[in-house]
Design brief:
It contains 17 helices and seven strands. The chain is mostly helical. The strands form three sheets. A three-stranded antiparallel beta sheet has the order 2-1-3. The chain has a two-stranded antiparallel sheet with strand order 4-7. A two-stranded antiparallel sheet has the order 5-6. The C terminus is likely disordered.
Amino acid sequence: MPLWLQGVLESAQVIVFSALLVLLPLGGVWWAGGFGDKSADALARLAGQIWLVVHAVPLNLSFNDGPSSASLQTGTLTLIPLGLTAIPLLLSWRAGRRLARASYTDQLWQAVLGALVIYGAAGLGTAFVCRTPEVAADLVPGTLIPLIPVGLGLIIGARREARAWGRLIGVDAADWIAATSQHSRWAGSYVWAALRAGFVALLGALVLSTVLLVVNIVWHWSDIVTVYEGLKPGVVGGSVLTILQLGFLPNLAVWALAWASGSGFAIGVGSSVSALGTAVAPVPAIPIFGALPTGQLSWGVVAMVLPVLAGALSGWWFLREGENHFDEWLSIKLKTRWFTATVSTLTLAAVIGIVAGILAGAAALLAHGSAGIGRLTDIGPGFLATAVAVAVEVAIGVVVGYAAGPWLEREPRLEREPRPERGPRPERELRLEREPGLERGPGPSADESVP
């Protein structure tokens, strides 16, 4: 079939699967009588609104909790469940791989264009049909914002299948790099390795923070169960509530990273939760909030070592890559090794720290949002505070990891076996040294012709 049509069909599958993943849990709550409005239209509109939130589309909220218009409250829901947003991204990743297998070089754009057009149309239709006086999404964001995770998944999946950009867009990056000068290639290798080291630092910090989050949840498990028992949601309601909290698990991992870095995060305007202390007002009755640390924590400052450990890991990783061409260039220009080693290491730590800080700030920006109304308009970590804290701590760890790397890489020295003592040389070797002609075997001489 035409590539654009195959792109439409692949995108339609992503739309249907992601819609079913939203509709089925809501249908269970609706069937159990958990909604006041039991009409199918209300269920469909709510499912469409949640589908938009899963795709990071902000919803405009408007509620009147009093007898007059003066009590009207308005706000915007921007808190994204990153775990649920990963579902259409992964489905699009699969679709991108299938489209790459069906496309020739320089033709993938046709399939991707068809997939994005139909997905944008689905977002536009959902935003238009599912709006209510209380909850509504703007048409332009509803059309364009869902294309971000879907387009990202398509491109990553296609690149994963093709294994080279040249097979996708007809431009080979290796040939372009080969045409540059040697100094440009060295500089590019250094920057590219530093960027990857910054990503390694962020990934390590997130993994360590997630482990800390899991330990904290297990430690406060009784408090979480107490909130569940107080809500009495039933089997279906409890299952949906658990699924919703799992959807915010990546957000919580980023919150844990911000907490461990010392910058902290907020649950409501004016609140602060960090390793140095917690100061919050009463929070909503959500079970996972039962695991929040309270009061001044004498041991909380110990958690600030986690980003430093992640930075040490990235520094060691950069050493193993062997791409510190800036240090090599300094060593050629200046013969004072202690000075060049110090400057190159501090420069490397600054570069990797800045990269890790920017990535951590971007993650904090994605994990931050607003519940729309009331004091819960500020939920999550701040971009600037998280970026600065993570950058500084990772930079410190890079210095430690890069400096300790040679000792970590050093292999144990093998003891040399004693060489056997040689006896007197045989008479034949002595004769060959005195008469070189004797070493020739039988055969024609140099001036004889061989047929």
